[in-house]
Each structure stands twice: as structure tokens, then as C-alpha cells.
Amino acid sequence: MKYNRILLKLSGESLQGAQGYGLSTDVLHSYAAQIRQAVEAGVQVAVVIGGGNIFRGLQGAGRGFDRVKGDQMGMLATIINSLALQSALENDGVRARVLTSIRMEPIGEYYAKARALEYLAAGEVVIIGGGTSNPFFTTDSAAALRAVEIEADVLLKGTRVDGVYTADPEKDPTAEKFDAISFDEVYSRGLKVMDLTAFTLCKENRMPIKVFDMDTEGNLMRLLAGEKIGTLVHL
Ligand code: UDP
What we know:
The chain is an alpha/beta fold. The chain has one domain (5-234): Acetylglutamate kinase-like (Carbamate kinase), CATH 3.40.1160.10. 37% of the residues lie in helices and 18% in strands. The protein has helices spanning 25-40, 57-62, 67-91, 113-121, 139-149, 183-188, 196-204, 219-224; strands at residues 5-10, 44-49, 96-100, 109-110, 125-129, 154-159, 180-182, 209-213, 231-234. The chain has a nine-stranded mixed sheet, with helices on both faces. Uridine-5'-diphosphate is lined by residues 11-13, 50-52, 56-58, 70-71, 74-75, 77-78, 131-132, 134-135, 137-142. Pfam families: AA_kinase. Belongs to the UMP kinase family.
């Protein structure tokens, strides 16, 4: 396999699937099956999931919610999604742990790097919920932080778009996809891979990012096997 230890970032929004709200069991099942294959191939898999299918602090603030409370609601939403994925993985026969950045035993164990590494080494999937535990951050930042912290080989950002394009491919049909692009070129072209806090954290810590379409089943394994999938953001 191309990578030994990955941090997989999944968006909350993608968990909605075709129904457009909440949690789709089809999507959860598909993600669980793909993660199972990676674990069976010997890859250590840590996961950070967003909460956008349930609540986003910034959107809440636009509707009169206090921003900090809204962000806390968003972070709790990531825990709900983490539990849903854990459940889907366990149903598929994969051992999975939820570690939370906010103390909330017995829902999950309190996150610590050493604990995460111990479970990863034992072949368990480690789902890190609760974002960074701080408001005004995103789960992309949590994913970047945890990827760096657990010394992942790569941060894999699973999205519904299959990579980084010269423009938004959902709006501009002439947009072209990059197979690889440097951090500096992403900045200079004003492209958006992740929010800038997350992106800069990766750059400063030399953490490569791979953006790929996780909604096409089999893509995760193809990528891990070294096939040309998605876009690699490199130094
Ligand atoms: N959030 C936060 N701090 C963090 C991570 C997340 O405050 O470290 C909140 C924030 O309100 C965010 C919400 O949790 O909008 C859900 O996360 P995100 O929007 O990143 O989810 P995604 O877009 O990946 O579904």
C-alpha cells in the first residue's frame, strides 16, 4: 500500500446522501465497507468527520444563535456522526473506537495521541470526534491537526468532487482537474482545498493532502494501491 497511516476526513454533509438531510445508512455502509478494505490491507485508519449535515455554527449565527454555542452544537454534531460511523463499522465486523476532543465518557474516550496510536497499532479504526474542541475552527482544521499529531502519512479529504480543479467544476464546465499541485500554487491561484487555517497547518507541518471522491465506491482502495485518483497537494 502507498500509505501506512492515513487520516481520512469525511464531510458531514456527504453523510446525508440522496435524502438531503440527517444520516444516510447507504452512505455510512459504503464508507464503512471502504474503510474495512483499507484496514484489511493493513493500513492504519484514523477518521475525522464533519457535522455540516446537522449543524454549522456560522449558519446558526446568521439565524440569531450565539456563535460560540452554535459552534459547540456543531462539534456535538460531529460526535453524533462519529458514533454513526463507528456503529456502521462494527456492523461490518471492523473494530472501531470513538475518541472525543471534549470529555464525554462513556460516549467516547478522551482523545490523546498515545491512545490513538495504541488503537491504530492494534488494527482498530480510530474516529476522532468533537473537532478541535474550540469554537471558530472547522473539522478540516481538526483533521489537519490530528493528521499532524498522529504523524499520518497523508491527510485524505474525501469529498463528492474528485479533486482540485482550476475552478468549481459544479459551476464551470471548462474547469480542469490537477493530478498534483503545490501548496504555493493553491495559494497563488486562490483555489480552495480546505479552509486556510487547516491548509496552512498542513503546509507548515509538511503534511500532504489528497482530495478525492469518496462517494465512488472502491476509490479509497484504488488510491491506497497507488492508482491516480484525486489531486495530491504537495510541498
Ligand atoms: N466546529 C467547531 N470547532 C471545530 C470543529 C467544528 O466549532 O474544531 C463546529 C463549527 O460550527 C462547524 C461545525 O462544527 O461549522 C461542523 O463542522 P464542519 O462545518 O467543519 O463540518 P463539515 O462541513 O465537514 O460537515
